[in-house]
Amino acid sequence: MTHDEMRKWLIEYLLSERKEYKSIAIPDDRISQWKLLRSLMNIRPAVPISSEFLAVQDEFLRKEISAKGITELDTLTPISDGIYLRQGDITTLRSDAIVNAANSGMTGCYAPCHGCIDNAIHTYAGIELRLECNEIMKKQGHEEPTGQAKITNGWNLPSSYVIHTVGPIVYSEYPTEVDRKLLASCYSSCLSLADENKLGSIAFCCISTGEFHFPNKEAAEIALSTVSDYLKRTGSRIKVVFNVFKDEDRRIYEELLRTR
Question: Where are the beta strands (DSSP E) in 146-192?
């Protein structure tokens, strides 16, 4: 199948799973088809699917990511020993692990085409990621506590693993001391898990900013200080990438890194 044929085949397969989808027409243009496919993947519950679907999906997603352009960690210039700053789509970075800012359910974002990183990571990793996360959560038997972390395969992402962590949600104008400690725990938990699994590199997103309302600058300050303290305390040689998406976050990190 061509790439266009694969997209349409995947849509038809997912539409055929639910009788209430029978009236949905497949649009003619590629962009609308991709939005429909992504939406169907986003809302699909964590139930088994055929190996035939997964084979087509995997080939399709890897071509999608390749077309966006993959950044190899080795091509980045460190800003200090083992520390990197990158602006861009974290789903196109090849490192040993990327960090997902997850919710407490830990099986991804179910809002169609939502702009959060959780949605993007699950979209491009593929349906296998939700299935793996669901198995982990079924065994755990309760929602994921804030500040802890879980590791999964990266599936179709360039990175080998995804480390999922639930950051604190800021409900008031300013984060509380508990919020600050929980955010620091997210970073240290991810680093500890990466070292336990003998990973050589990890890329952090801006945990708890955006949808969780943690102030960007204070979140960056906590991220930098926690990572620095962890590396000094443990002697870990893991390479750490602070992967930002917004211009605002890049400016914040550049300013903070200049003064350290």
Answer: 149-153, 161-166
Cα separation, 228 vs 99, whole angstroms: 17
Q: Which residues of the chain have pLDDT under 70?
A: none
Judge contact between 14 and 37, C-beta under 8 A: yes
Helix (H, G, I), strand (E, B) or coil at 153: strand
Report the relative pairing of strands 149-153 and 161-166 from DSSP bridges: antiparallel
pLDDT of residue 148: 98
Q: What's the CA gap between 41 and 34, in Å, rounded?
A: 10
Q: Which of 182, 40, 160 is nearest to 104 (CA)?
A: 182
Report pLDDT for 260.
72
Q: What is the pLDDT of residue 199?
A: 98
pTM of the model: 0.96
What pLDDT, in 10s, does the model give residues 141-163? 999 999 999 999 999 999 999 99
Which stretches of the chain are assigned E, i.e. beta strand?
A: 71-72, 83-87, 93-94, 97-102, 149-153, 161-166, 201-204, 239-244
Question: Taking the CB of residue 139, how many other CB atoms lie within 10 A of it?
Answer: 7
